[in-house]
Amino acid sequence: MRIATFNVENMFERPVIMNLPQWAEGEQVLQDFNALSNLIEQPQYSGPDKKKILEILTKRHKGVITSGESKYIRLNEIRGKLLKKPRNAPVEVAVEGRDKWIGWFELKRETIKEAAIENTARVIREVNGDVLCMVEVENRITANRFNESVIPKIKGVKYDHVMLIDGNDDRGIDVGIMTRQSFKIHSIVSHVDDTDSEGIIFSRDCAEYKIITPSNKTLLVLVNHFKSKGFGLQNENDAKRNRQAKRVRQIYDERIKEGFENMVVAGDLNDTPERDPLKPLLGNNSDLVDVMSHPKFIGDGRPGTHGNGTKDSKLDYILMSPKVASRVQAGGIERRGVWGGKKGDLFPHFPEIKTPKDAASDHAALWVEIGL
Description:
The chain contains seven helices and 21 strands. With 372 residues, the protein is an alpha+beta fold. Strands 9-10-8-1-21-20-18 form a seven-stranded mixed beta sheet. It has a six-stranded mixed beta sheet with strand order 11-14-15-16-19-17. Strand 4 and strand 5 form a beta hairpin. Helix 1 runs antiparallel to helix 2 and helix 3 crosses helix 4. The mean pLDDT is 93.
């Protein structure tokens, strides 16, 4: 059987701020969005709360609030109004607390270029996983639509089982899985509510999928997307990833004690193997084996999985329990969906990729073939 993981970077739509040339601007928008979302959840809106809401909206509207929708953030008012515009006066917060209206702020999204969507499907066709772990998927409806319409369009074979649980990311980037007919999803466990002394652990989820293989073996797959490096302070990001790695390791150890021998931790862990945040999974006291370090892995000379494939861009993983690692027959990386270098000529890509916007993703896909 073949297991693959791929950060698809959304299948049809993506928050506008995630497509900006420089992340600095997107980071500031995300900070404002999170602040607005937290402020409107207060039971009572104090004077300072209302002032802060209006300050952020004024900044997002470049000086004058004209509506609840700015370039990157949209206000949805379902019942009641958060804002009102008195005659000959500036916009003001119209309600006194959360129970006086129904609505929310959301990040505006834009449609991904059709060529990029199809090239995402080409990567999935080429890795041809019996079990495909997906990172940064909008939702299950989107994954189904992509599976039913786009994969067959590029002459790929669509999947029989598609599953995704919405996670903790307000931008709607979740982790999911697709499997072939004979690899049935037996059960699912979500960890969106896992907490420690610092609060919620997972930025998205650590979704556990119990898969039954055609030979009636059980495979447990933990799909992850750890905290990114692109938003916030590095020491805080490192600490968050370390908490996530510790919790995944704890889950892994618990399942091993319960008798699960065939286990895989897959996805985008957003850090390199030698750094401290991932030590719980990749340190000396861990028996998990990274497919890229397995002797049967055939690479392309580039140690990274993101962008240009440099050593410091090794972000994506298939980590295997000893039992699974002992059954590896082959492993590899599919990089043809990535635009490499400024001119796209750093390594081969699909001929359908003519510009950086046509790329399937900034991430290469990983796969492993195991006898299970």
